[in-house]
Backbone:
């Protein structure tokens, strides 16, 4: 399939034209060539504050087509809030952020989203194909796709992520890894330029983690989209990740996994940012006169 060149996103006509292109091109294939080096997401001096508390400030971030960036940080550092900001749910306190050159807004069909893993209720009758199909209607106004066309797209997506065998199974009866495959398929339904994944590996065993990571990696290489993936554990991603964004103490660090995680405690390095040199505890024998040395077992 020949690649489709993205056009402007200035209004309803552009949205309808984009939808028509997608209907002609199908749900698979490299829609967005990696040859395009312009960032799909750009943030400059971005600061987010919620409830009077600053989560991160002065964030500069370029996310380019085809790259996978892992977002790390302690609880409450603003990792999920970063994704929700990109989705248009939160507004920046200061700074700028654009997607495809336009200000962030809600409901952009070219941003895919895989939410935090949560096993569906066993009593829910939603089938696998129904869950994937929700990705085709989330952004559309007016009549949906013709039934035959819609069924074909869903079937193609299920086959692409390896979920055809449980397409008609109730979602609540599936394992966590199987449910995540369906959520990835749902997120791919509208050929995203950017895929946001909020802890997609949580609650999965090591084997399922590896399967989900490989699936996301294969899809981003085949389709050419960028990935921002929030995680607490970088280890399952080390073979595929390009860069790491570490958030903590209102600051951030960006770089290769080795450069960002070289510190034993990256959050401590962020607290020290701005100091001319790190503070060191003086050796007990070098203390100033009159300073009591700590007793053994206290403060050591």
Residues:
């Amino acid at each position: 399939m020949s690649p489709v060149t993205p056009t402007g996103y200035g209004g309803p006509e552009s949205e309808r034209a984009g939808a028509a292109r997608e209907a002609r091109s199908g749900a698979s294939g490299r829609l967005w060539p990696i040859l395009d080096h312009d960032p799909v997401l750009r943030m400059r001096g971005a600061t987010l504050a919620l409830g009077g508390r600053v989560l991160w400030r002065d964030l500069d971030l370029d996310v380019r087509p085809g790259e996978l960036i892992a977002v790390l940080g302690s609880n409450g550092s603003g990792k999920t809030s970063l994704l929700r900001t990109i989705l248009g749910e939160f507004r920046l306190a200061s700074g700028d952020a654009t997607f495809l050159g336009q200000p962030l807004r809600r409901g952009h069909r070219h941003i895919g989203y895989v939410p935090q893993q949560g096993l569906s209720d066993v009593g829910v009758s939603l089938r696998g194909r129904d869950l994937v199909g929700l990705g085709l209607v989330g952004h559309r106004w007016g009549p949906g796709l013709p039934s035959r066309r819609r069924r074909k797209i869903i079937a193609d997506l299920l086959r692409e992520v390896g979920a055809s065998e449980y397409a008609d199974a109730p979602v609540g009866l599936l394992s966590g890894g199987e449910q995540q495959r369906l959520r990835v398929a749902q997120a791919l339904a509208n050929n995203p330029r950017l895929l946001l994944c909020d802890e997609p590996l949580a609650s999965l065993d090591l084997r399922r983690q590896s399967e989900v990571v490989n699936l996301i990696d294969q899809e981003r290489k085949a389709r050419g989209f960028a990935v921002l993936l929030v995680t607490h554990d970088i280890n399952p991603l080390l073979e595929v990740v390009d860069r790491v964004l570490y958030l903590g103490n209102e600051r951030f660090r960006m770089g290769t996994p080795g450069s960002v995680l070289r510190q034993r405690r990256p959050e401590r390095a962020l607290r020290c940012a701005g100091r001319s040199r790190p503070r060191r505890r003086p050796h007990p024998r070098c203390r100033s006169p009159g300073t009591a040395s700590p007793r053994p077992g206290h403060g050591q």
